[in-house]
Amino acid sequence: MASSSSQARTGTRISPSLRFYGSIKNDGVSGSYSFDDANKLSFRFTTERENMQRRNKGELYPLALVLRADEVYQRDRKRDTTVSATRAASARIRIFTLNYGYGKLREDDSTILTYYSSGRDKYSGKNSLAGVDYLDHTQTNVDLHFNTAVNDAHYLSYGFGWQKGVRRGLTSA
User: Fold this and answer.
1) Closest CA to 66 of 127, 7, 128
2) Hey, CA dihedral for 56, 62, 66, 68, is it positive or negative?
3) Strands (E), 57-154
4) Which of 25, 91, 153, 155 has its CA 20 to 30 A from that of 168?
């Protein structure tokens, strides 16, 4: 049985959800350019936006239908990614690749408790802020890789990499 107390209070019915629902939008561009057979440059830029929501109403026992508030979880996420790669070849070093990546993520989560199934009650002050989470994460990495010909039948592969990530946030406030 669905939440009859929520239905009686507002005339609408809450529809609990196990997963987040909403909108996810992706945009991006990628390309590559070959200077000649041995040298190539490629890149990719992407952005992703999420505006998700999840609703929950506990129905473990009949009294909870009347006394427990609806929980409305809101998630707003923005993710930007930049990747570029250079590939070159020469007579001695067969393949040389340089990869660069940068990513940025920002996420805002909030939880509102309400006795109105619409999740909005701006004027009478019946909503309660139950929790706020904020995450700001950036990551940068650089990779350098070589394939060197030791002789006609053998190659030596070696590489170096560097990565840095910074995470700032506020959890369970």
Assistant:
1) 7
2) negative
3) 70-88, 93-114, 128-149
4) 25
pTM of this prediction exceeds 0.90: no
11: left (phi over 0), alpha (psi -120 to 50) or beta: left
CA 156 to chain centre: 38
pLDDT of the residue at 55 = 77
Task: Answer for the pair 5, 57: CB distance below 8 angstroms, yes or no.
Answer: no
Distance CA 77, CA 111 (A): 15
Phi, psi of 167, deg, nearest 5? -125, 125
Choose among 171, 56, 74: nearest CA to 117: 56
Number of other CB atoms surrounding residue 117 within 10 Å: 21
Helix locations, 12-153, DSSP H:
62-67
Q: Where are the alpha helices (DSSP H) in 24-61?
A: none
**Largest pairwise CA distance in the chain:** 82
Question: Residue 137, SS3?
Answer: strand
Cβ(24)–Cβ(50) below 8 Å: yes
**Per the structure block, which two tokens stand in for 6?**
């929520």
